[in-house]
UniProtKB/TrEMBL annotation, chain A:
Highest classification ranks of the organism: Bacteria, Bacillati, Actinomycetota, Actinomycetes, Micrococcales
Protein name: Aspartate carbamoyltransferase
Quaternary structure and partners: Heterododecamer (2C3:3R2) of six catalytic PyrB chains organized as two trimers (C3), and six regulatory PyrI chains organized as three dimers (R2).
Role noted for this protein: Catalyzes the condensation of carbamoyl phosphate and aspartate to form carbamoyl aspartate and inorganic phosphate, the committed step in the de novo pyrimidine nucleotide biosynthesis pathway.
Region described as Disordered: spans on this chain: 319-345
Key words, A-Z: Pyrimidine biosynthesis, Transferase
Domain Aspartate/ornithine carbamoyltransferase carbamoyl-P binding, first and last residues per copy: 2-146
Catalysed reaction, written as an equation: carbamoyl phosphate + L-aspartate = N-carbamoyl-L-aspartate + phosphate + H(+)
Keyword hit for Transferase: yes
EC main group: transferase
PROSITE patterns the UniProt entry points to: CARBAMOYLTRANSFERASE
Pathway of action: Pyrimidine metabolism; UMP biosynthesis via de novo pathway; (S)-dihydroorotate from bicarbonate: step 2/3
From TrEMBL, chain B:
Pathway: Pyrimidine metabolism; UMP biosynthesis via de novo pathway; (S)-dihydroorotate from bicarbonate: step 3/3
Binding residues for substrate: 61-63, 93, 279, 310, 324-325
EC number(s) on file: 3.5.2.3
Protein name: Dihydroorotase
Amino acid sequence: MKHLLSTGSLSHKQAVRILDTAGQMAATQAREIKKLPTLRGRTVVNLFFEDSTRTRISFETAAKRLSADVINFSAKGSSVSKGESLKDTALTLQAMGADAVVIRHHASGAPHTLAHSGWTHGAVINAGDGTHQHPTQALLDAFTLRRHLSGPGDVTGRDLAGLRVAIVGDVLHSRVARSNVQLLHTLGADVTLVAPPTLLPVGVDAWPAAVSYHLDEVIDTKPDAIMMLRVQRERMSSAGGGFFPSPLEYTRGYGLDARRLAAMPEHAIVLHPGPMNRGLEISADAADSPRAVIVEQVANGVAVRMAVLYLLLAGSEGTQDETRHDQTNDQPNDQTTKNETKVDA
Amino acid sequence: MSTGRKYLLRDVAPYGGDRTTVLLADGVVAAIGPEVSDDDATVIDGRGLVLLPGLVDLHTHLREPGREDAETIRTGTRAAALGGFTAVHAMANTTPTQDTAGVVEQVWRLGRDAGWVDVHPVGAVTVGLEGERLAELGAMAESRAQVRVFSDDGKCVHDPVLMRRALEYVKAFDGVVAQHAQEPRLTENAQMHEGVVSAELGLAGWPAVAEEAIIARDVLLAEHVGSRLHVCHLSTAGSVEIIRWAKSRGIDVTAEVTPHHLILTDELARGYDPTFKVNPPLRTQRDVEAVRAGLADGTIDIVATDHAPHTREDKDCEWAAAAFGMTGLETALSVVQETMVDTGRMTWTDVARVLSEAPARIGRVSDHGRPIAVGEPANLVLVDPAARRVINPEEQATKSGNSPFRGRDLSGCIVATFLRGRATVLDGTSCDEDVVVRW
Ligand SMILES: [Zn+2]
């Protein structure tokens, strides 16, 4: 694994390994001194062609806690509608010696293009591309699901086998949904997509997920978790007279409110990738309920991004050759983490 | 217009049939027969070679005037000759648009000056391709360029009233409207075929129905006003069905398919390589099968390249920012051979029909796509079907490198091309000096 572009290319082993590593990272973050020296002298560039303060800060925090140098490059506002700027920006970053480029771009596939163009030699991490993928979001969601729902005790090494997860909302435009469907499927969960038919892509029937148009029916099947997707208000007024008739009608059909929350099983949790549209896809009751793990998702995001940066950058022995046995790969990595933590503490 | 040089094509197989010898002299086919000889003629050993009428492309983007950085009339027509063409129709989406007699005459003249193939400019249907009011179709038809094919290609004449008027108006000079069938509202910001692959890649979909709905409307309009209609680059199984239905009703419609839609699918978008970004988009394997079947049974009349050169800047970027289109003049015959002849679905006689005779007839080009017979203009191409070659865009004559066949091994090579008895290509190489001094 040289880059992280899509959850579709992660094997079960790789995915579990990232979650396990994130678990170790999270443990270090509970300590008073959070910083690890692992990536000292390495440069991580946050290349954001699209505004997302929360994702950028999460990656920045993750990189800094691993002692990497961070360069934030916001290309928004410059003439990024033409592709030259991606190429020229990448060449500039290459000249600066970027070891990893974290890229957020409005065009689906831009991270893939960056990774395969020869414009940069560093690892490319997709921080969200168009309506394609947002793999670290799916990984942090999986991490959160595993922590809460995979049973008592140490969750290391576990996957999400048998868990039933409903993903609700604007699947059509959602990179979070695409990433989650692939990753949760790889990890053994059963995914049901819930949306009005206008917000599901043609071709969704080929995805490893069930599809429903009715949230209440899906809640009646007692899912273990429900993931609410952000619905942009603009969707109502865009091409073709909108994807749904009114925010009110959307909320009635697909919003998570106190009534629907109460109908869910006792143990079920509520996720949302943020930022939330309170009152549209999720009511304040649901968002602020103890079963919502939305704030925890943010914290887990840092741990997962630390794990991804660590696995991609810290020593080729652990990351680049995935054909080797995981056991032999895992050991030196665990060692490194522990040793370096000690030094730092 | 004789060059003085004569060619004796010895032991060639016209239409892939029986071997014979063909003498080209004074711009025409002077003699045909196994015993024909001529001591003054340049002899070409034609054993194993197929002789066809020179290819005619109804859909070429030569980019001049306006985008000479991507292609010029000279480079594009040289590429055409190397691809076996003797005539091409230059699409109207130039800058300025080919929507006046002045611009089409300029393109026509530049084609003549280049001398590689006959250039027949296509006239825009509407002023500036804006889809708002008819361009001066009559003036273009009566100009020295004698325009007979009118198209807003790249854009669809989507206003049904305007389309009706255009279909009616061109009847006065036996013209044809060549429609780029794309319902604009259904394809806003569309990036690739809408289906399983677009759903996964998160690229906005170009649904098949956006093409089929316009074709269905247009064949009915053509029937209603009694006009002839040509459908550009149809790409879906549904479009083939509609054309088949229209023809069975006696509607005067012709249809084309591009080489790339005969062989490539939307799976190629998975690498986000904009080389494979094209309009209409690459479709599914099922659609590929349907257009092959449609071409084989005559539902689809012709193969046209939609040769669309683009500069590196316009392709060396993320998918959404890249231009639509791929080059095709120098690979068209190979793709048709590989998909239709090598598979046994078509004969070389059929190839002559779909790549020469029918496009010449649709474009009302009287001196191309003629039979290989004594007295006919010597517009011919000699093909070696047994040869194979690996495509390298950097070695092609087109100025642009956006061939979707880079690195691909394709059947068949053009050995020689003759325009009115003069070789534009010999031994697979363009006859640069002869052509340049000609005019
Ligand atoms: Zn077109």
